[in-house]
Design goal:
The protein is α/β, with parallel strands linked by helices. The chain folds into 2 domains: about 120 residues, Enolase-like, domain 1; about 220 residues, Enolase-like C-terminal domain (TIM Barrel, Alpha-Beta Barrel). The protein is about 40% helix and about 20% strand. It is built from 13 helices and 12 strands. The chain has a 5-stranded parallel β-sheet. Strands 10-4-12-11 form a 4-stranded mixed β-sheet, with helices on one face. Strands 1-2-3 form a 3-stranded antiparallel β-sheet. Helix 3 packs across helix 11, helix 5 packs parallel to helix 6 and helix 9 runs parallel beside helix 11. It is globular and about 60 Å long. The N terminus is likely disordered.
């Protein structure tokens, strides 16, 4: 049997790892990514099914940005499937075993991304076997999470961005929107912020993201120029690993600095907080290490009192935010929706978790078949 039914007379912990299936899918983005460092029109996803001897199937997906990266990640996932066959589905143990199996090539980069995909599917399987939503298995409750819309507002003309901001607000009654900055001329960024503010009003919470597009000198100039505009945060103005540069920006600016989507594992988050390189953190699930990595990182952020937001993966993000002490904002993007049977509901600016076992991911196999690619 597969999915949501609980097996009578069997402890839910007693799942046995059978195999993994990983499939490459590429979708066309409704609103292409146009950032200073890249333009993306095609969005790759790796759909992961973790099969167990007991019939429960755990599901997750990865969004590795570039189609060619799937050539390396899918074999790694299949290798995990061979290595872990017959092992109990105990997510923290699987996380550690999978990481250690790749120790000699390093714990970051592709290694961590593959481990994260395995980890999220394992947690989904365990929660399904328990007959409860993942957030409940983790000690929380089913509910909703405050979300901002991150579905667009890329580097287009100010008038076009302002019109799109109104569309995005209406997609779910959002009270927060994120727009991207880093145009060739600083004055065009300023005009865009002004146009969006005029379009959506003073009550809208606006986040801005430079997508690592500036060097430190540019960042000092541009971030100071927007420091009095009442923005929720300034995200990744410089390359992600320049923590000393971020520490300088965090000291000089009144607007909070947001980083974290490029933390590869909880230790990266710890180092950034120790260096005072940011005011907020927003780990990405495929880089932080899935659910296990998130929970470890959330303990560090919670102890430091640092607000913690999510990056991509809104379905699993909603569950873990329900048990995150310093939960801040969920980044909502619907880029995986075309291959899902049922997407999460957005209402009044909040993402609502369905009361179903696991994470709630089921594939739309017709859409999957239509968008499968050969690598």
């Amino acid at each position: 049997m597969e999915g949501n039914a609980r097996v009578e007379g069997r402890r839910f912990e007693a799942l046995t790892f059978k195999s993994i299936r990983a499939r490459p899918v590429v979708l066309k983005l409704e609103r292409p990514v146009v950032a200073r460092i890249a333009t993306i029109t095609d969005w790759p996803l790796i759909l992961i099914d973790l099969y167990t001897d007991e019939g429960i199937v755990g599901r997750s997906y990865l969004e590795p940005y570039t189609t060619k990266s799937m050539k390396y990640l899918i074999p790694a996932l299949h290798d995990f499937g061979e290595m872990l066959k017959g092992h109990p589905v105990t997510p923290i143990e699987l996380y550690n075993l999978a990481r250690k199996s790749l120790h000699f090539v390093g714990y970051q980069g592709m290694s961590m991304i593959a481990v994260a995909g395995l980890d999220m599917a394992a947690w989904d399987a365990l929660a399904k076997a328990a007959g409860m939503p993942l957030c409940v298995l983790l000690g929380g409750s089913v509910g909703s999470v405050s979300a901002y819309n991150s579905n667009g507002l890329w580097l287009k003309q100010p008038e076009a961005v302002a019109a799109e901001a109104i569309e995005l607000r209406e997609e779910g009654g959002f009270t927060g929107l994120k727009l991207r900055l880093g145009r060739d001329k600083m004055r065009d960024d300023l005009r865009t912020i002004e146009a969006v503010r005029n379009a959506v009003g003073d009550d809208m919470r606006l986040m801005v993201d430079f997508n690592q597009g500036l060097h430190l000198g540019e960042a000092l100039q541009r971030c100071h120029s927007i420091d009095d505009l009442g923005l929720e945060w300034i995200e990744e103005p410089i390359v992600y690993d320049n923590l000393d540069g971020y520490a300088q920006l965090a000291v000089e600016l009144k607007t909070p600095i947001q980083i974290g989507e490029n933390f590869y594992g909880p230790r990266d988050l710890y180092v950034a907080i120790q260096k005072k390189a940011c005011d907020f953190v927003m780990p990405d699930f495929m880089r932080i290490g899935g659910v296990t990595g998130w929970v470890k990182a959330a303990a560090i952020a919670g102890a430091a009192g640092v607000p913690m937001s999510t990056h991509l993966y809104p379905e699993v993000a909603a569950h873990v935010m329900r048990v995150t002490h310093t939960a801040h904002w969920l980044e909502w993007q619907d880029w995986a929706d075309p291959i899902l049977q049922n997407s999460y509901e957005i209402m009044d600016g909040r993402l609502h978790i369905p009361d179903v076992p696991g994470i709630g991911l089921e594939w739309n196999e017709g859409a999957v078949k239509a968008n499968l690619v050969n690598l």
